[in-house]
Amino acid sequence: MVLFLQQFINGLSVGSIYAVIALGYTMVYGIIRLINFAHGEIMMMGAYFAFITVLASGMPFYVVLIVSMVLAAILGITVETLAYRPLRKAPRISALITAIGMSLFLQNLALVIFKPEPKIMPPIIPRMPVFIGPLRIGTVTIVTIVLSIVFMVLLDFFVKKTKPGKAMRAVSEDKEASVLMGINVNRTISITFAIGSALGALGGVLYSVSYTQVFPTMGVMPGLKAFVAAVLGGIGIIPGAMLGGFVIGMVETLTKAYISSQLSDAIVFGLLIVVLLFKPTGILGKNEKEKV
Amino acid sequence: MKRKSLLIMLIAILVLTSVLAGCNNATTGGDDTPDVIKLGVIGPLTGDYSMYGTSVEEGAKLAAEEINANGGINGTLIEIIAYDSKGDGTEAVNAYNRLRDQDGIVGLVGGTFSGETLAIKEIAIEDGMPILSPTATNLNVTLNAPNVFRACYIDPYQGASAAIFSVENLGAQTAAVLFNTEDPYSEGLAVAFRDKFSEKGTITNYEGYTRNDMDFRSVLTIIQAQNPDVLFIPDYTAKVGIILDQVKEMGIDVVCIGGDGWDGIELDYAEVAEGHFFVNHYAKTDPNPMVQNFIAAYEARWNKTPNALAALGYDATFIMVKAIEAAGSTDYAAVVEALAKTDTEAVTGHITFDENGDPQKSISVIQVVNGDHVLVDLVGGN
Lengths: 292, 382
Description:
Low-confidence stretches of chain B: 19-32
CATH topology of the largest domain in chain B: Rossmann fold
Oligomer: heterodimer
Structural class of chain A: mainly alpha
Mean pLDDT of chain B: 87
Distance between the termini of chain A: 54 Å
Largest sheet of chain B: 7 strands, mixed
């Protein structure tokens, strides 16, 4: 039982990283119906921002995290303004391909600037086990879980209670109608990208601190898993992304623990297929009626 | 009209290729000595594992420069040509073909990884190319390949030595093994360690992971529950560092042991590797003057401390050059024959080759102490 609880917490920590990254996918999809494939690269850039800040200033973890999130938010807005905004009226496939292009561009940009060798993230969170009852949990694991949950709660509050949050929901519901209501759609979309990218950077920083390395292709695998998480939970639905992230992390960890490490990815992606077969809109997705 | 120009093009291509092929024969085969003797190096010079290929390249270049400073081979200078394999078999084959056809090398000091050397092996056997891999430790590299040699000891020997050391020097009774199932090197060591260790003790866990895995907490939790005396992690530093970091974070009380892939771990992961052991080709702190002279020369040339791969690249180049010298020609078969008769003192120990082309030499056990290597023990020959 203790062993299972321990594995449960391991899964929670892996899942919370997927969940915060998945939020970025789902928010962007919710508001402009675009799968932002560059999101994994924003996460990678966030990790590099943190790495550079640590090396340059040696500031404590929380400052580094904030700096990285702010820079990633700016990067997110820039990507949106330069690459996606001109295509707002274009067919969705054009925007999708632009997103893939953006992803490759950012990855190769990082390759040129930072070189392919993995950089070692200094241990800005001291490594040690913390004993909670019979459980022993690493400091990094605790920080990862706590921070992800804090930011999810903040996001939930922002979307439900604040004015820009309400605007965001309105735009995702009906863009034309919200213009009529006096909502600045472009600004709302920018805010969405900023928040999504900042959360991506949070995922990137947690990932790089957790696994000690930063490299240009680091966003690919977690980005893909987070995308799967978003789809699994129901893309466009914020609680769905969180749920999806935790489910993916948990399935992955428990597979590694009780079945086999080699099969974990196969089972994760297999699960996606099964869920989509029975509920194409994802776990929390509602069946939308086609408007005639 | 169209057909005619096509025909002309075809003829032009045919003529060109035959001329080029002619060039080739002139530089690689035959007894007439060329102006420079070219030796190839293949290894990952970019990417995750670039430090390994770069080290071999630098070791080989240092050796070539020293040989050239002493007049080369009877006045003929040596040139090292290094190509990037990115650690990938296909890329390594491309590099090999380029070295053979375009550069006309006399011998190959490579590949750096077992996987890439295995990829080259079959083509090289057909060519009869003298191959001396400095660092390919997989058992199969030299099997049934009369022209393929290596300067390093093999995986099973390494894994078994680590197991013997765990039992005899550390008094371990239980051991866990954690290895990369997608890498023949890692698996080769894991199998050898398991087989040897289970003669004297118990293997509690034998767990595999895949190349993309970053989170080992779930596997480590299972291992922790069994509480083994030692944990054997045969992989390269980029992955070992991540695992050791999580071992430390989870506070698992276990002595970790690794193979030569750990070499250089103190550069990036000194803190988490502290106190753990690994077996290696040579120890930086070995007082042998040959070792210390090599280290001094390497530091002067490249401004960094050499790792074991650099030492092996250096040794392999010297051995290859001695063989060419002894053969008195650049003919592939003659060089291969001379290589087989090698009996020389080198930085990584005294080397002779057995009938497979594997060296008979000693193995060093190193502990990471205060971020530096300490030579704990020297296990002699096979």
